[in-house]
Each structure stands twice: as C-alpha cells, then as structure tokens.
Write a structure and sequence with these properties.
Distance between the termini: 92 Å
Structural class: alpha+beta
Helix content: 40-55%
Strand order of the largest sheet: 1-5-4-2-3
Number of strands: 11
Radius of gyration: 30 Å
Shape: elongated
Strand content: 5-15%
Amino acid sequence: MSRAEERPARPLMIWDGECSFCRRWIERWRWALGDRVEFATYQRVAARFPAIPVEQFRAAVHLVEPDGRVSRGAEAVHRALSLAPGQGWRIMLYERVPGFARVSEAVYRFVAGHRPAFDRLTTWLWGPHVVPPGRRLTAWIFLRLVGVAYLIAFVSLWSQIDGLIGSRGILPAGLYLDAVREHLGPGLASFRFAPTLAWLGAGDSALHAMCAAGTIAAALVVAGIAAPLALAACWALYLSLVTVGQNFLWFQWDSLLLETGMLAIVLAPRRVWSRPGRDPEPPPLAVAVMLWLLFRLMVSSSAVKIASGDPTWRNLTALTYHYETQCLPAWPAWFMHHLSAGVQRFSVGAMFACEGAAPFLLLAPRRLRFAGIAAMIGLQLLIAATGNYGFFNVLAIALCLLALDDGVWPWRWPAARASRAAARAAPDGLPPATIRARHAPGALAIAAAAVYVALSLVPLLQVLQRPTAWMGPVAAIHAQLAGFRSVDRYGLFAVMTTRRNEIELEGSMDGVAWRPYAFRWKPGDLTRRPEFVAPHMPRLDWQMWFAALGDFRNETWFLPFCRRVLEGSPPVMRLMGPDPFAGIPPRYLRAVVYDYHFTDAATRRVTGAWWRRTPLGLYCPVLALEGGRLIAAPQPAPAR
C-alpha cells in the first residue's frame, strides 16, 4: 500500500484509455458503482500523481482513495467494487481469507498480460452489451404475459364454473365453505384454511362476479393500466376461486400463477399507464426473486424425477410412455410416440439438461445465460406442441423471458427504441452513471425478499426429499400459509405413468342397452384425432385422467359427478359432449375402464383410428338414484 499526495474528493480509479478490453469493463464498473467512484484514464491524470510510474499505470488499474491510499491490480478492483451496495464481501475476502489475495493478483496479472485474447472472450461471452442494456421492455413484455395468463385462467374457468362448483355443480362452493366452517368454526382459522372472498357469498352470482372481475383486472394488466393494483386484484380473485375450486383447481400451474402474480405486483411500475419508454427500470431485487422462482420451477421438475427413484427416468425410457399416457395429448404426440427408442432416450437426457442444468446458467455471462434460456424455452415449446397443459407453458416462457434484457429485442420495434432511449436518459436529470445506484434495495425490500426465499426453500427441500426441521419456525410458517398457494412446490411427472387407463361413462334406461357419454377433449372415440385445447384448461377432462389412475373411493368428486349426471344437471352436462339421451337422464350409470394405446402407422392408415383399446372392467358399481340418493344398482349389468 502507498499514499498519494493528492487527495481526491471521491475514490478515483485510473485506467489505460488505449485498451479496448479495459474500456469495456470500466463501463461495466461505472454502471455498477454509479457516482461512488470517479473514473479517469492515466493519459489524462497521470501528471497529478508523479510518484506512480507510467509503466505501472499501463500494467494495472489504480485506485486512489480520499485518504490518499493507493491500491493497484486486483486489490484496486475489489476495493472499488466493494463500494457497491451489498458487495462489501469482496474486500473482506481479499483481506481476510488466506490465499485469496494471492490468487486474485495472479489471475489479474494473467488477464492483464493477455488483454486482446480476453477482449475477444468478452465479446464471445457477453456480446456487444457488457453493460446491461436494462429490462424496461423485457419487464413490460413479461407483465403483459402474466396478464395474458391470468386472462386465460379466468375466462377458461368462467366457462366451466357452474358445472364444477356452482350450486348445481359437482362440488358446490357453498357446501365446501359450510363444511370448513362447521369443522374449524367461524373466524380466522377458517379463513386461513380457505382464504377466499367467497366467504362473502358463494352462490352462482358471486362466482360469476369473481370471474368477471378477474377478467377485467387481467385485461387491465395486459393494457398496462394501474398494473400493481390490477395484479393485486387478479391474485386475490384467483386465490379465492382456487380455494373453493377444490379438486378442480389443485394443479401446479394454478399455484405457479398465484406465486408469479404475487411477485409481479412488486415488479410492476407504479404508474397509471405503463409504457416501455416511460417506465422506470424494474427493481433488480424484484427481478432476482422472480428468476429464483424460475430456477426453483425448473430444478424441482428435474430433481423430483430423480428423487422419486422411478426406473423409467433412471434408464431414460420415460418418453417412450409419456406421449401416449399424458393427460390430454395433442395430435403431434402420436408422431413423437413412434420415434425410435434411441431418440427417446436422447430426448430424456436433453430434458434433464434443460431442466436440471440450464437454470444454473442464469448466473452465467450474458450469452451463456441466453443459451440456457433458449434451452428452457425450447423445452416449453415442445411440451406445448405435444400436450395440453393450460396456461402453464405461457407462464414458464414468461419467466424465462424475464432473464433476457432489452438488447435482444429488434431495433425496428418502436418499443425497443423507446426503451433504449430511456436507458440512455437518466431520470430526474441525473447522470447515467447514477441510474443503477438509485436501484439499491432498501432494508425493508431486502428483508421481504429474504423471508420469501427462506419460505421457498421449504418446498424445494421437500422436492429434494431433504429434512426441513432444521429451518425451525420457517417450516412451521410455511405450513401455516399453505392455504394461500403462493410459495408452493413444483415438479411434474415425478413417476411416469406407463399405462393409459380411460374411463368411459355409460348410461342406460333398462340396465341392458348402454350408451356412452362423450367428453369434449379426453380420448374416447378411437377415430377422433387428439386435438389442441390449450391454453384452455378443461378441468373435468383432466380429473377423469387422474380418476383412472386410482380407486373411485379416493376421488371425492367422482360420485358427486355421477349423481349430477343421473340428475341431468344442465351445468354439468355442458362440461361434456353431446348428451346421448337428449336431456332425459338415464336410470343407470356405469363407468367402464379401458386400456388405451396409440395405433401404429399401418393401422391408422387403414382404419383412420388414432387409438386402440381393451376393456378392463368396471371402475365402480353400477349406479342409480333412489329417493334422490346415489346407490349401487341392485342388479348391475356386466360390462361388455
């Protein structure tokens, strides 16, 4: 350490102005440090420090501090960057960790001695944007996509809500809340278990009002009008519907929408009308927390498959079953199913790379990060192209896009030009170097983010099958807040389904002649091509897939559904295809289980059939109504 006679008012970093590599990284440090450090080339200020030879200035950067202290090389870099918010650990490592300083200086000397090569490496890893171009437009697009996901969710549910949880639906919301109140008593305990606005009213009109209000709020998010308030309304309304939706809204993408929507409230700009050219830069801490959600989503999806011990994932054969056995396959799944076993194994390996490895590139240099994002988006597009998963893929892609920056959007887009122009012009007349410094998070924001991350570790550890008891009250708090579905666990297809059982519902007037009920989307007619239904989510069709995997006594919604069919409930019948009894309810109802498989190419070419099936027997006893009660028919007819 040496001392300079001249004492600058602020720390002064002196660098080689003729080095293009230095120029690029000085701009990066200027962006990171704001006005905390002054930067100047030695060609301009060397005369002010005659005690430092020019050769030393050419060899390494120097930092002159207000007390006259002079440091150079790696020490100068660490001391300067430690002045940025939350970066004090850098100089602490340099000064206190044995060997850290020596290694840092050796690395610095190596890089300084090969600056042209590292300049090319910088271009390869970061591209033209070593200084991040900002995320105004990226955040704007992300929030629009969150609004679109909410809009899809509300409209899709609105079209089904009477049949699912209406007063004449399968699981009436009012009866559910009555049962909660009877079990837990009125008050906070009931609300914490079932947090919903439906406590104010759970009739058909109230359910429709919540769907309508949610649709309007989602449209406001898409339009960028009062986005924080609109997002808060979307979250509260969708949580209310998810809570009373019971079995029909207990999917992981419902939780993902709630969690993403909750975090998006903090990310949204506080203004009446959001536009990329006028919005402020999104808070870096809010972006970081959102990317943590993306990381959890992807890594959990990979980890849960490995942790389950399922042999089909271990031996890379899972996709030989998946396209055929997934809930609602689309027609491309038929073609994917017939790919060779080698291609299927390679695809499983690529899937693990996209879910388990690519998320770690979120912390990598810009172009490597983009490669990881491209892999994750590619996986989502493939999933969307072969299956119907509602708005899940829209949400997952939106989270991936937030990891990009405004430098990726085409210059010909007016919004991209406006965003970049705004990035060059600092708010409130401040110089550009101070923009990043203004976004240093406050203590309250840091505390809130820390609480969220701590709570989110609980479901992540559960997916990894690791104990959470060591987290003490954090695990207990997470359990208490579970009803809010906003810090949830993720991981689809932990165990691959290797058989496709389908339930065909059949009615009869005499117990002898049976007519099948058609569903709109799930496999039934062997010649009907599997269709695309996403982003709409047909909740009843999905539940029928789950029901076929288990026992009807464990599916609390199935017998109420059968009762509504025997009653001829109009809202329930509208969830299905054409009524084979033309509005007159049958006297008997039975559920026959079939083993479904895709046909081969030759069979489909000759017969036009996409599926073949084999009967397995009855799913439950033949059912009838007696005095308004559902009973097993005294003399059930055998399944054909």
